[in-house]
Amino acid sequence: MADVAPFPAPDQSSAQRAAPAATGADGAGPIAGATAQLRPDVQGRPRDPRLDFYRGIAMFIILCAHIPGNRWTGWIPARFGFSDATEIFVFCSGMASAIAFGGSFQRHGWWLGTARVAYRCWQVFWAHIGLFFFVAMSMAALDLYGGFEKSYIGSLNLRPFFNDPAEQIVGIFTLTYVPNYFDILPMYLVVLALMPAIMGAQKLGLWAVAGLSLALWLLANPYVVGLGPEGLSLPAEPWSDREWFFNPFGWQLLFFTGFALMAGWLPKPPVSRGLALLAAAFLILSMPFGSWKVFSWLNSAAPDLGATIRPAWGITGEWREKTDFGLLRYLHFLSLAYLAWLVAGENGQNLVARGSSLAARFWAQILTLITKVGQQSLAVFVFSMALARFIGAALDQTERGILVTALANITGFTLIIGCAFAAGWFKSQPWRRKR
């Protein structure tokens, strides 16, 4: 599954968003380039469209990925390399958090910054609780009143909860019972809770920040230093040894990489043709080792080459593991992010529609829709996770043909766009405006 999005989103009016970053509300100031410093004296610039655009793209991919039996999932990024939309989600989460929370630490001090983070954790926690109970109730309603041969409670492995609700409801609230479908918000919550420690370490120096983040990642991935496969993790259910599908101690490395770039702790990468070619080569050459889909194509075209590559799947298993965020996933995403950064251009200028042609107007509308979804990521994420189950149930009643599947996905896209605009409208609190 893929903060993917439980991310802090801009929550003020368009007039406020146009104000300088130094005077904007937490989490709402404009993005002053990919390396905006978290200082009160930063001067605002026109809003950088890259963060919300790529975050919005991740939301559409995540919806596709969570519709059961969706044909379109065969073409999402996860089928073509080590990393997928989850990485986009978490990386953008870190960048957005640098804006939303990093400024609070800088302007108001460590204690008030921590209070700001605690409040967000409280919001994310209740979003997780609400999502779980709504989806559990919905699956129970389908089983009770739908008259279907399939058990939707069983499809999400929720029988332990319904068989022993007294014990499991305690596990849900204490995060000791985290079903696989409901794992992204708890991961984001724990990573977010690490921010006060990171901001405290930053007072000692950036070396302390890097050391703390890398140490946590190594504890989750001890194989890197030859200490075996078992690392630091959190239990996902009391009756087995299963761990959280997204280990926050591993994934925090990507989150704080995005945070550091937006905070200016890491310099923006150079624009280099050689570096771009290296990143592209890594992405292309890693495809057969990170994607079973691509490996199958290669194996059919060149069985001898496939036989040579096949052992690498076992050798690289830990290095590309999703749960603990293996090193190959990190390198793959950084390569992909670098190319996406180049494509977008300085301050996202290539994403801005120019001219009055029909194509320019069409792109402007598409950009507006995608960006809106990215801005309202928490609301859209929670909505899409519930929506995906209903779309899957509807597809179960059809032959899942190409046209039906396309209609289901496009309907889902339309609904999450509607959710984003509705969330933005409610956040603007129009009832408080003076006439």
Please describe the structure with a list of short key phrases separated by commas or semicolons.
single chain, 435 residues, mainly alpha, 0% strand, globular, disordered N terminus
Compile the SSE list and pairings.
Layout: H1 14-17, H2 50-66, H3 85-108, H4 110-145, H5 152-155, H6 159-163, H7 165-174, H8 184-193, H9 195-202, H10 206-220, H11 248-263, H12 273-290, H13 292-301, H14 303-315, H15 327-344, H16 358-375, H17 377-395, H18 402-427
Helix pairs in contact: 2-3, 2-16, 2-17, 3-4, 3-11, 4-8, 4-9, 4-17, 8-11, 9-10, 10-11, 12-13, 12-15, 13-14, 16-18, 17-18
Account of the protein in words:
This protein has 435 residues and is mostly helical. The chain is 62% helix and 0% strand. It contains 18 helices and no strands. Helix 3 crosses helix 11, helix 4 runs parallel beside helix 17 and helix 17 runs antiparallel to helix 18. The radius of gyration is 22 Å and the shape is globular. The relative contact order is 0.15.
Tell me briefly what this model is:
With 435 residues, the chain is mainly α. The chain has helices at 14-17, 50-66, 85-108, 110-145, 152-155, 159-163, 165-174, 184-193, 195-202, 206-220, 248-263, 273-290, 292-301, 303-315, 327-344, 358-375, 377-395, 402-427. Helix 2 packs across helix 16, helix 2 packs parallel to helix 17 (377-395) and helix 10 packs antiparallel against helix 11 (248-263).
